[in-house]
Amino acid sequence: MEPSQITIVRSRRRKKTIQTKYGDGHLWIYLPAGMNPKDEQKWIDRMIERNNRSERKKKVKESDSWLVQHTEELNKKYFNGALTFSIRFVTNQNSRYGSCTSIDKTIRISDRVKTMPSWVQDYIIIHELTHLIYPDHSKNFWEKVNQYRYAERAKGYLIAIGAGTIDGETEPSELENVIS
Ligand SMILES: [Zn+2]
User: Fold this and answer.
1) Given this model, what pLDDT does residue 71 score?
2) What is the pLDDT of residue 175?
3) How many angstroms is it from 130 CA to the middle of ligand 1?
């Protein structure tokens, strides 16, 4: 995120060190006085870029820790807290919204999910949590997932936005449901 305000402070006492301070969108850049304007600009650009990078990283960390905490709540609510897992947001999942590696109990959620309504986010997380018990999309799997009250609504939402599936799942057809 770009800082909304930048203040350059030039100090005669400063010899070589360049420092920054950041808070509430305000970036302070401390430079030694007497630098030539070209070098100064180069350092200012570099410091802004570095600050943007570290702010982005901080944001990712914050949202990951929210995700871990929130998923732990869903684990308690729907699985009696019985599941152990690690979960994080990833930026490189373009065709999937979530994935679960049941061997090392790792769940990855696409960061595109962050902008979805919370009940859709919860559905996606519960879907992936359920894979820790049922790696496939079996009948048992769907029985568990469908215990989430907004499951049907969330599936409809994903279809409506053109996503269709989370991780390539299919459900037993209507007919099969009627027979069983
Ligand atoms: Zn799935």
Assistant:
1) 98
2) 46
3) 8
Sketch the domain layout of the chain as residue ranges.
5-58, 83-179
What is the reported pLDDT for 168?
87
* CA of 131 relative to ligand 1 center, distance in Å: 7
Fold that domain 83-179 belongs to in CATH: Zincin-like (3.30.2010)
Rounded to the nearest angstrom, the distance between the alpha carbon of 129 and the centre of ligand 1 is: 9
Rounded to the nearest whole angstrom, what is the distance from the C-alpha of residue 32 to the centroid of ligand 1?
56
pLDDT of amino acid 147: 95
* Mean pLDDT along residues 34-59: 93
110-165 tens-digit pLDDT: 999 999 999 999 999 999 999 999 999 999 999 999 999 999 999 999 999 988 78
Taking the centre of ligand 1 as the mean of its atom positions, its distance from the CA of residue 62, in whole angstroms, is: 26
User: How would you classify the pairing of strands 26-32 and 19-23?
Assistant: antiparallel
